[in-house]
Amino acid sequence: GEDVEQSLFLSVREGDSSVINCTYTDSSSTYLYWYKQEPGAGLQLLTYIFSNMDMKQDQRLTVLLNKKDKHLSLRIADTQTGDSAIYFCAETAGGYQKVTFGIGTKLQVIP
Amino acid sequence: GAGVSQSPSNKVTEKGKDVELRCDPISGHTALYWYRQRLGQGLEFLIYFQGNSAPDKSGLPSDRFSAERTGESVSTLTIQRTQQEDSAVYLCASILKGSDYGYTFGSGTRLTVV
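Above: the input entities. Below: the structure tokens describing the complete assembly.
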């Protein structure tokens, strides 16, 4: 079945860049997402990328996709304390197929 | 509404009791999903509804779990004879037909079975 893996924890200093990595197994993945979950809140869609793209940039966020290696990363430039949250990688083949989520990476930003 | 609304936000129940969780999707969103998030775990798919089609129940962990949705409106997730392992945050999400740009999630219901 589909599987999405992420590291559990990342700690960075305020102002540095954060890179959160994710690997997935489903070769039919069409859409890949990054969600952010702040304490006590639901998941908020941060950004997404289609499988035919290598990179997507959105302000401080850069998503890189290596489809051959099934590797997705999220880079947050100039990380702020407000970026402290859990970041979930997710993928779907689309067409109302269920979205498979990773376990989430907890990002801690040290002032 | 403006977002996906879930109620209650918190629920503490005794083992063996039944609970009902509610999800109000965004108006016009045809697809609705339920996920479970156990402490320190990722999101576990439970069930999804797409319009009037038969729901995909493949993620329901046992026959104690059931869900209903009438048309494209409110959905309820019912857990009968709750067990301690049912303790989790139950998240509902909806998505607009034709959109693949990710779901809109509610804030979840935190269920604690004591």
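Note for the figure: The longest strand of chain B covers residues 43-50.
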